[in-house]
Structure formats: structure tokens, C-alpha cells
Design brief:
228 residues; alpha+beta; Glutaredoxin; Glutathione S-transferase Yfyf (Class Pi), Chain A, domain 2; 2 domains; four-stranded mixed beta sheet; 8 helices
Amino acid sequence: MTLTLYQHPLASFCHKVLIALYESGTVFEPSLVDLADPDSSAAFLDLWPVGKMPVLHDAARGATVPETSIIIEYLDQHYPGRLRMIPKDPEEALQTRLWDRFYDLYVSVPMQTIVGDRLRPADAKDPHGLNAARATLDMAYGMIARQMESREWATGTHFTMADCSATPALFYAGIVHPFGVGHETVAAYFERLIARPAARRVLDEARPYFDMFPFREAMPERFLKEDA
């Protein structure tokens, strides 16, 4: 197999790349990384010492590609599939990269801060950081609500890398910090995202690991069922 994706099915940033791969129909081999297992962890750190998932390895080109947005652009350039993730038009491509970064930085990152705080021991909680993360999500939801008033997808009429980023970001963020009043267009956009077969497949693959998610008790029941 030419392409191997080192990933874990529960990780939100892995979801982003998996959705791009499934949307494009690109053939690859998934390799499960278990950072709790010394051998698995050591092998992954040897490949990418930063230790952040996912990482793509391309045996045919001898390339190791980290970072989700770079992986997706790499796939677009060297293994184009049935759906292009970065538009060819320069202005549309710029908007795609902007909203891709928006969802990574202002939805996924504060979501992970909230999850991380729950994992801290009682004497190491960070109330200030937690409040800042929730405030960032409120700001982001408001911006998304305005952005999606007249759009089907993140940057217009076509599904792009920005939507790949938005899907897991809104899935997990909506659990730890639910959409509120005034965020109806955010909720509607999220429903469009998770209705796509690629997103459903990613959630199906993640389901056996949902018990590991620190906010498992807040996860909507519909995502826990086999036929969700």
C-alpha cells in the first residue's frame, strides 16, 4: 500500500483527514497509533518526533507528511480523487484555507482545552483557561452563524477542506459546549455535515472508542447507536 495514515479513530484531527480521504475515494492503509502502548508510541515518535496525529506516509514518494491541512493539500496535489478539497480558483482556495484554519484554531483548539481540563486532577484545574475557551467557542459560533446564513458549505456551494475541518470540530465542540440560542444556522450546518456518508463512516469507526471520551455522558444518544 502506497499511503499509510497513522491515526486514532477517536481523535478529532484524524477525523478531518479521514473525511477528506473518504470524500475523495483515495485508497490508503490506516495504522492505529496507541500512545499508551510503549511499542506503538515509540514507533510513531520515530516517524514523527512531535508525536501529533495524524501523519501520512507515502512509500512511493518516500515522504512523511504531518499536519492535517498539509496532508489534505498533499493528497490534492499528488493523489487527486473524485472530489477536490482545495478549489483551483485562487480566491476560493484562500477562503478555504482561511475557514479551515478558523475551525482548527477557534473551534477544535478551545474544545480540546475544555476536554483537557476535565482530565486534570482537582488541584490542577484551570478555571481561567476554561472560561476563555468557552468564550472563544461562543465567539466562533456567532461568526459561523453569520457565515452560514446564505451558504450550504463553509465557503459556498462546494464541500472543501474547510468542511472537513468543521465536521469533527463541531461534533465534539457541540458536546462539550452546546450550540445555544441564535446558533440555529450552526446546528443546521452541522446536520448537513454529519449526513454525508464520509462523516457517517468516520463516526461509525469512532463509536467503539467513545467510552474513552471524557464527556461520554453528554454525547447525544443518536451517536452511540450502530445505525446512527
